[in-house]
Amino acid sequence: MDIHDIVILGSGPAGIQAGIHSARRGMGVLVLGKPQNSAIMKGHFENYAFVEGPVDGEALMKAGLAQVRKAGATLLEEDAVSLETAEGGFKVRTESGQEAACRAVVLATGAARKRLGVPGERELEGKGVSYCADCDAGFFKKKRVVVTGDGSAAASGALHLLHFTQDVTLVAGKLAIAPALSEELRASRVRIIEGQKIKSITGDDQVREAVLSDGTSLPADGVFIETGAKGILELGASLGLALNEEGHLAVGRDMATNVPGLFAAGDVTGPPWQMAKAVGEGCVAGLSAAVHVKGGGKG
User: Fold this and answer.
1) Strands 44-45 and 55-56, how do they pair?
2) Which of 3, 59, 54, 6 has the alpha carbon at shortest distance from 31?
3) What is the pLDDT of residue 51?
4) 155: which of 83, 191, 194, 207 lies 20 to 30 Å off by Cα?
């Protein structure tokens, strides 16, 4: 198991800035995440102070990645699939099965909950439609469930659901996950349907079926929509992270959550959805995490 002072979950503007500041404070820093999936990659910016725009988001991302490496941080372009407390801090596991122990964590995964936008999804949310397999699996013991998504969140979510039911189907357009996770998934009892998407979810007061793009109907009591990397709800499901009234992570001025050693920055803490906010919060979170580690976990 690799050991670091700080692990940063997310390689967007908040995560990169947190990595720069914590690494410059002499911390051993690991930044996890796939930069190509960050919202910044497809954006153009012209209202960011001191940068004359419009500026291509991909160019900004490349510059940020070079900066965080120069500061001394290690980058691993993998998603985290689990986060849990451990002696002296935390343990993180990535989609390839690598594990990292650390004293502090900065949560900068961006806004979670990517909707499918299909008929029946909103109407049946909370009535069988879920966006967090780790959170809601216990409600589907011995029931029929469908998971949809192409990435690590969908694959690990489907595997997690096997602890509660044997009837798990994963619907994916094209799975794009690490070989180790793919091997585990294909060796499991999860039924995998690739090359399809869910085009509608039907039911009355409860999910009854998921209809695929080719017209196939899958009887289901639950549909889990896991279309990106694992978000804060999934990663923090067992940690008791407090949310604010709007449903975002509650943090103090030092970007600390209610869990000692866990800090958060960027879209996970709520609007405005601006790079300037993400970078500012990332700066504070990175510095605060370093103070926490240097203070023996008491900061």
Assistant:
1) antiparallel
2) 6
3) 85
4) 207
Q: Assign 253 a pLDDT band (cuts: 50, 70, 90).
A: very high
Query: How confident is the prediction for the chain on average, in pLDDT?
Result: 91
For residue 1, which amino acid is it? M
Architecture of domain 129-225 in CATH? 3-Layer(bba) Sandwich (3.50)
Cα separation, 182 vs 195, in Å, equals 16
Report the alpha-carbon distance of residue 110 to residue 182 in Å, rounded: 25
Q: Which two tokens stand for residue 73?
A: 């941080």
**Model confidence at 25: pLDDT above 50:** yes
Domain ranges of the chain: 2-112+232-294, 129-225
Residue 297 has pLDDT above 60, yes or no: no
CA distance 229 to 166: 24
Residue 287: partners with Cβ closer than 8 Å, 6 or more residues away: 21, 22, 25
User: Which one is the CATH code of 2-112+232-294: 3.40.50.20, 3.10.560.10, 3.20.20.450, 3.50.50.60?
Assistant: 3.50.50.60
